[in-house]
Design a protein that fits this description.
Layout lengths: L11 E5 L4 H12 L3 E6 L2 H10 L6 E4 L5 H10 L3 E6 L14 H24 L3 E10 L12 H21 L5 E7 L14 H8 L10 H12 L10 E4 L7
Parallel strand pairs: 1-2, 1-4, 2-3, 4-5, 5-6, 6-7
Helix pairs in contact: 1-7, 4-5
């Protein structure tokens, strides 16, 4: 028999924010590794696109706004017992610290920090996370690698890393692993509507020691690593994918 340490066969995995970008890539790549996916997000049209690209059978789509308590409750109710959770949904509203608006701050905090924490709470209370499962939070190098305009966003990404370490300790007795992935800049469609011009992004990209931004599938490969049984002795860690930019 061929050794397949990174297989996700027979695993049920939830991916939030799966309607585009990193979340979509994680869902597709996990399905290619044999997993059954439950994908969720707010945009049903885009979620259906993701669903159509999943390989194999046994996948499901559940529309949900994780900032809505009723949607959160309905999502957890409909989910099967999970072998993996990838908490990917998140937003950013870049602005200088002296111009941060309270309503924007509340939305960023709720989306990037409060809702992921409450989702895990409900999953645990409903016993929807199997023993031996893997929980992943998509954080960012913004947690420690400062960038002008990212004050609120960076605060949430640093907080989710700290939370994940506590959760890892609390769930260790159930053999549930908890880790974070911290990407640098990833080339997704979001850059097209970003605050910089294409020329500015190209200039910034050259600052990376490996000479480019990351690709969504590279984050997906990291997720597969942490979701698989190959990392059954890894918990409470952060996997950095940043082309070396945080070394500068």
């Amino acid at each position: 028999m061929t050794l397949q340490p990174f297989s996700l066969a027979n695993k049920y995995i939830l991916v939030t924010g799966a309607s585009s970008g990193i979340g979509r890539s994680i869902a597709i790549t996990c399905s290619e590794m044999g997993a059954s996916l439950i994908i969720t997000g707010r945009n049903t049209y885009e979620l259906k696109k993701t669903l159509s690209q999943l390989k194999g059978e046994g996948h499901a789509l559940i529309e949900a706004d994780l900032n809505s308590e009723s949607d959160l409750d309905n999502l957890v109710k409909e989910l099967p017992a999970l072998d993996g959770v990838v908490s990917n949904a998140g937003i950013n509203r870049r602005t200088l610290c002296k111009y941060i608006k309270e309503n924007d701050l509340d939305l960023i905090m709720k989306t990037n920090l409060t809702s992921p924490i409450l989702l895990i709470k409900r999953l645990l209370q409903s016993r929807k996370i199997n023993s031996g499962a893997s929980v992943i939070f998509i954080s960012s190098i913004a947690a420690y690698h400062s960038s002008i305009g990212d004050g609120a966003y960076s605060a949430t990404k640093g907080a989710i890393v700290s939370y994940s370490k506590v959760l890892a300790l609390e769930l260790a007795g159930s053999k549930i692993r908890v880790n974070t992935i911290q990407p640098g800049m990833i080339r997704t469609s979001l850059l097209e509507n970003g605050p910089l011009s294409a020329e500015d992004y190209e200039k910034d990209e050259k600052k990376y020691p490996l000479g480019r931004y990351g690709k969504p599938e590279e984050v997906a490969y990291a997720a597969i690593y942490l979701l698989s049984d190959a990392t059954s002795w890894i918990t409470g860690t952060s996997l950095v994918l940043d082309g070396g930019i945080s070394l500068i």
